[in-house]
């Protein structure tokens, strides 16, 4: 078994619904351009307010993926 | 366009339901006395336990709002 | 009223559903072996990805419980 | 039982005597203008020196208090 | 000499010019409603970008002021 | 001389008197069930307030103790 | 309105002039290859010294930009 | 597949040889009393000095292990 | 001399041998696709355990490289 | 009024009595060799345990002093 | 080429003008007594307020310098 | 037994070989000018890269030593 190297990219997912949905939206978007996604870690939970209500949850994520030989 | 100043207040919202509900309860309460709420940031997620179950989620929030000339 | 001492144990709860469920699963498991659970604090929210989707949410928790005389 | 919201205010208490006295002085002062004080947390312990001796202990405190309907 | 208590308020000053100007704007605004301002501490330097240029510097500040007997 | 391994346990000591007493109470309680206590480190100083006064100091402690062969 | 995802890239801008110039140089360079730059955050201010004088300011920056469908 | 819960214990491994040996010594000791060890994380690297030389490396470790039904 | 801009990428190198080998493996892999590597910084040392032994060291690294005009 | 420069030195004061005494002992010792001591800040509170009791409090301190022209 | 050792000293530079000037003042002062200054890092930006205006910027700096054989 | 005071100095040791060698080099250099070295703590592991390889490991260290009466 070889010694893999992983790359960590940082994204911010958003949703008007919930924290969980903001995470899922961010992971969905990342998976469209990156292969071998392996783990994520939440770095920050923020949000935008308008008219005294939450307009968007914004969740910072570090996303790790395994580098392949061809990457 | 003028250079706005914002004030940041720190609150703890609580809910027996979920983390999202604790955040919404805190924002709702803040919006009853503060105008121009602009963003929030989660600083801490804690909770109170009783009989081996979660009785209350308690979510620390920093809430930013724009100061007006009359404030 | 006596001056209680509390012990803090660190666990990681997991769930394929949501952050809230991962917390509840961890607290449920802790309550099977520890009495007098008093509070929890989230230390980290991570997760495992497979096929570009969230396979498991993993939530780090510090859980505090009151020590009794007999403990 | 309703879901309370708490506000957290940050103060610095001081004393020429001791750390404990600086905390008590800060809490005493806060309790003159704020009701329903619920908890405090020490954020920083500093002090001012003069002639090679401690002139004042300065203790940073976050103080949480429960918001009432009328606040 | 009495043992003073200080309050710490958190603001965000902004400027389209520079970091120093954002700090000054925030302090100027705070001094319009608060007396006895004593010190500040920078907590964060951020900014808003548009068309690949800095539109606003946003500087987080903790501002400490001495509480008087009448406050 | 062998290479010892230590275990670190986290507790919260409390006292209605002072920070020092809360630390001593926590260490006293830990020494009733753990042998070879070697060091402690304060992780947090908090407290509970009631009627505008400090009801309990609560001091978080990490306590290290040397594992013996038989542990 | 759709739920945007942002990517955060980390750069270090440098200047022999000032902190503000180092930030602007870094943002200018980033805007040559990245579209939709939205915000930045300073993570670190360092510098290189030679002959007892500041030769270069080096400012660490996180820069966020909105991902488009085609990215 | 069930939703596992993990427990995290904190230890300090030591060695007169090297950092790597201190980690291995700590893990070896932990594996004598704990089953299902799953991961570790280094929290601190310290050491004891005597006669101007390193007498012991002391490496703080968080060690995670999967709880079984019977634990 | 021009004012260079650097980019910082985050990777995780792994090795079944040692921390130093995990760092070298990560740097080796990064140097296959990135030019002008200039510095690295260790952000985290973790590892995977199996059968009570270290199966892989995993070392988080920030790696800085100088951007060229053509990048 | 000239723009002073301060130097910050880090010490650890100890006492078998209390945290306050450990701070005073450290400041007393520093004042024997350093002039113009201006402030201190507590960075860490630890202690050594023996026979289940606190043998020494050890308090980490940063101590700032004003540099004079002749220093 | 030998393996150099560096020492890191911590200072606070001040200026009534700007952050950049406070850094330069601190570096200028350090260079009067220390040779081979190599780098600096900003650890804190604070300031003193009087009459609602900034009287002094105070910038904390870590300054690294290379030790020579004769030091 | 008297209440000792310790001083903490910060250095950076370097080596082209390994992290352990960089630590040893730093401690060796410190022991040439300081007596009564008592402990060290690693604060940072960095390194310089050239031609895609590690040229120098640079390890930040805090080194504590006991002050004697004559110091």
Secondary structure elements and pairings:
12 copies of one chain form a homododecamer.
Chain A: E1 5-15, H1 19-31, E2 37-50, E3 53-66
Antiparallel strand pairs in A: 1-3, 2-3
* Element pattern of chain A in H and E: EHEE
For the termini of chain A, the CA-CA separation is 19 Å
**Which CATH architecture of chain A?**
2-Layer Sandwich
The CATH superfamily name of chain A is Flavin-binding protein dodecin
The total count of strands of chain A amounts to 3
Mean pLDDT of chain A: 95
Helix content of chain A: 10-25%
Notable features of this structure?
71 residues, 55% strand, 3 strands, Dodecin_bact (chains A, B, C, D, E, F, G, H, I, J, K, L), homododecamer, three-stranded antiparallel sheet, alpha+beta, Dodecin subunit-like, 1 helix, elongated
């Amino acid at each position: 078994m070889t010694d893999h190297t992983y790359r960590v990219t940082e994204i911010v997912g958003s949703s008007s619904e919930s924290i969980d949905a903001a995470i899922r939206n961010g992971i969905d978007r990342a998976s469209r351009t990156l292969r071998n996604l392996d783990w994520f870690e939440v770095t920050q939970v923020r949000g935008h307010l308008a008219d005294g209500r939450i307009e968007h949850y914004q969740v910072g994520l570090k996303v790790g993926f395994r580098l392949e030989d061809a990457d």
